[in-house]
Design a protein that fits this description.
The structure holds two protein chains of two kinds. Chain A is mainly beta. In chain A, 12% of the residues lie in helices and 60% in strands. The N and C termini of chain B lie far apart (79 Å). The chains are: A mainly beta, B alpha+beta. At the A-B interface, α1, β1, β2, β3 and β5 of A face α1, α2, α6 and β6 of B.
């Protein structure tokens, strides 16, 4: 657990240093390089609300890039591709690969965006998993499960002169299928992160 | 800048690779050896029925107690109490019984009524002023309505999605032994499901409130009231209502992901349910029999109180009193006769206790998996 906290703080610190340095950089006339989004997030199994993100949080990290269908000074239509990891304490470790379609609107250096997408979720239960053999006995089986992960996100950020940005993002995502009478197990996540540009 | 980018990506990858939580350890379950019931005249039949009952429901383990006037007591076990350690069910394990706790909490309330410390027509808002303005019509809801699930106060359970998700997210957040917190978070400010006394809606919330009222009326904690009014007079020496690290408790299992595979959720049940007035009793099947015999034998309550527990609530939908639920006692009208008792379920168990006064027979069923069960076994074994 301590390890998670140290890495989380390290990533947050690096992101902030990157953003601060970017603030001093001259405005580039070249097209931005490959954007890399890095965020740490606090996650809960919950209906969408804003409660409990900072109390004994379940932490995760996400790294991704984005490709632009439209890239104008005031608006962007983009596609993200992400990989990430989070741990749901006492339940499972989760790795994911996801992609989202997004729209971003700039107001000066500030921006707001919205995304919708989905992905593959690789869950590894930390609870031993047992499967019936059919004769009334149970055997231990792989604790891994593969699930679909629908996502919706709303974000806001600040873009520095060299297209580096810092942002916060509220996300709801699901695990599905889950139970016959429960189509999706809803989650909420609050991200803070930075967008950096490689090859600048 | 590029260096920092690489550091970021590297740190992120390291996090993913190293931050995994390790697999949870499950302690061994240990229980004393069971009395040998193999000489019971119906031993083979009962054992076969119990084995089938367990297998049909894909449960790791099952227990059954049958006591009849003709054949006496039989206790049997099937399967495993602990899959991690491959521990056989003995029949002497302590088990969570979920809502079978409710008739015990009701017994305490009725005992306090007999002692003149409260009345069943007292109002919720008078006993718990903090509910005034937070629970609609708290000044009209009676203790009788809380006992009979007719108060209209919404359930903390199946029909409260936020509560269910919180239970999966972090079971300690929905600890039923901290009712004030639970009420503030999930009950206060919510509308009633209907006007008090007009419909039946099963409500764990009502029994949590009754536990608070019993504590207030006596200035004693719930576990002391259980000891005084239930466990000691009934001779239940293997029972308690509190959170304990108790290796004698059978493990509980849940198919969380809906794929037929089970995970151990004993620690969830402990965090969430143990110690609560709605479902927190831990006991054994033989201790539960002692409760049944003490209650129906008049050791715990007087005849009038028992009669009130058994008598069906009267609602517009069942004006003649055939709603099959009294004051925390269910009525089961079967071909073999009428039985009184209660069922119970938590996250990873399913239990049932019924007493048939005409036959002087008792049955207790338990499996350590949460799944709806087929109760036709009752008519076959009684």
């Amino acid at each position: 657990m301590k390890k998670v906290k140290y890495f989380t703080w390290a990533i947050a610190l690096l992101a902030l240093i990157s953003a601060a340095r970017a603030q001093d950089a001259p405005l580039s006339r070249r097209a931005p390089g490959l954007p890399i989004n890095v965020s740490v997030f606090s996650e809960s199994i919950s209906l969408p609300d804003f409660k409990g993100f900072f109390r004994n949080p379940n932490l995760g990290v996400r790294v991704g890039t984005e490709l632009y269908y439209r890239n104008r000074p005031n608006t962007q239509v983009f596609q993200t591709v992400n990989v990430g990891f989070y741990q749901q304490k006492g339940l499972h470790n989760a790795w994911f690969v996801s992609s989202e379609l997004g729209y971003r609107k700039f107001f000066g250096n500030f921006y707001a965006d919205a995304t919708i997408g989905g992905g593959y979720l690789h869950l590894r239960s930390i609870r031993t998993t047992y499967e019936p053999t059919g004769s009334g006995d149970y055997v231990k089986v792989s604790p891994v499960r593969n699930k679909f992960m629908p996502t919706l996100g709303l974000g806001a950020g600040y873009r520095f002169r060299n297209h580096t940005a810092i942002f916060a993002r509220y996300e709801v995502f699901g695990i599905m299928p889950i139970q016959q009478d429960v189509p999706v197990l809803p989650h909420k996540a609050l991200h803070v992160g930075a967008r950096l540009n490689i090859n600048r | 800048m590029k260096k920092i980018n690489y550091q970021l990506v590297l740190a992120t990858l390291c996090l993913g690779l190293t931050a995994c939580q390790p697999e949870l350890a499950v302690p061994q379950t240990s229980a004393p050896a069971q009395v040998d019931y193999s000489k019971h005249p119906r031993h083979q039949f009962f054992q076969s029925e119990l084995d089938t009952y367990r297998k049909v429901h894909n449960a790791p383990g099952a227990l059954m107690l049958v006591k009849s006037e003709a054949n006496g007591l039989w206790v049997g076990a099937s399967g495993k109490s602990n899959l991690e350690h491959g521990t056989d069910m003995q029949g002497t394990e302590r088990i969570r019984v979920g809502s079978i706790t409710k008739p015990m909490t009701a017994t305490i309330i009725l005992k306090l009524k007999e002692q003149g410390k409260l009345k069943l027509d007292d109002k919720l808002g008078d006993w718990l002023p903090q509910t005034q303005g937070n629970i609609p019509k708290a000044d009209q809801i009676t203790l009788r309505q809380l006992l009979s699930h007719t108060s209209g106060i919404r359930n903390l359970g199946d029909d409260n999605i936020s509560f269910k998700l919180a239970l999966v997210n972090r079971p300690a957040d929905v600890d039923m032994t901290r009712p004030d917190e639970i009420l503030k978070r999930y009950v206060y400010g919510k509308p009633l499901a209907y006007d008090p006394g007009t419909h039946f809606l099963y409500s764990n919330t009502g029994f949590m409130l009754l536990g608070m009222i019993a504590e207030k009326a006596t200035q004693k904690p719930l576990k002391a009231l259980y000891q005084e009014f239930i466990f000691t007079p009934a001779g239940m020496s293997d029972s308690y209502i509190e959170k304990r690290d108790d290796p004698r408790v059978a493990r509980s299992y849940l198919d969380l992901y809906g794929d037929g595979k089970l995970i151990d959720v004993g620690d969830w049940e402990k965090s969430y349910d143990d110690g609560g007035a709605a479902g927190g009793v831990i006991t054994t099947v033989t201790d539960l029999l002692k409760f049944s015999e003490a209650l129906h034998g008049g050791k715990l309550l007087n005849e009038q109180s028992i009669s009130e527990m058994k008598g069906s609530v009267k609602l517009p939908s069942c004006p003649n009193g055939d709603c099959e639920y009294g004051l925390a006692l269910s009525t089961w009208n079967l071909e073999i006769g009428t039985g009184y008792g209660h069922d119970g379920g938590v996250v990873g168990i399913d239990a049932l206790w019924l007493y048939f006064p005409e036959r002087k027979s008792t049955i207790i069923l338990f499996i350590n998996r949460s799944i709806p069960t087929d109760k036709r076994i009752i008519e076959r074994v009684l």
